[in-house]
Amino acid sequence: MVAMPSGDIWEPIQAIRREHDRQIHRWMPHINLLYPFYPRDQFQAERVIPRLEAACQQVPGFEVTLATFRYFTHGAKRATIWLDPAPRAALVHLQATLHDTFPGYDEQSRYHGGFTPHLSVGQVTSRRALQSLLMTLQTHWTPLKFRLDAVALIWRTADSPFQVECRIPLANSAGPDQV
């Protein structure tokens, strides 16, 4: 379950990811909300879509801005660079609402400090590379905005990229979009 920027603003994100993200071929630009999630073959049996529709109707759509780069560290040298989506509080509320509906899927919220909304754009393997890349990206970045009016239910096989099963609208948005 992810929040996705609208396709019309993907290119600047993908340009960075093509150079720095080893997962570009597996994932579309996204903000994980619940991951991992039910396997696709359980979507119907677990009534995933009706439950998501009910949860999403509790959260109105909102505008998201991608303006600032941040990072997570993984050990002494490695790091993941990400765009910090704002407003953070709206994304945290959306994720909490989804988590309340599917409490067994808590990986995104069990870290110290809880859920951190983020859109990953790359990985680095040294502190020097991290600081240099952060400075370069932030200096040349033009903030992007998009309206988040749905969440996407995605799936993949072991060796394929993620695909969108459907988009579930947030409150005050159109009905479900089966892809």
Automatic annotation (TrEMBL):
This chain belongs to the protein called: 2'-5' RNA ligase
Kindly give the Gene3D superfamilies that the UniProt entry links to this protein: Cyclic phosphodiesterase
Stored SUPFAM superfamilies: LigT-like
- Identify the species of origin: Candidatus Entotheonella gemina
Q: Which domain of life is it from?
A: Bacteria
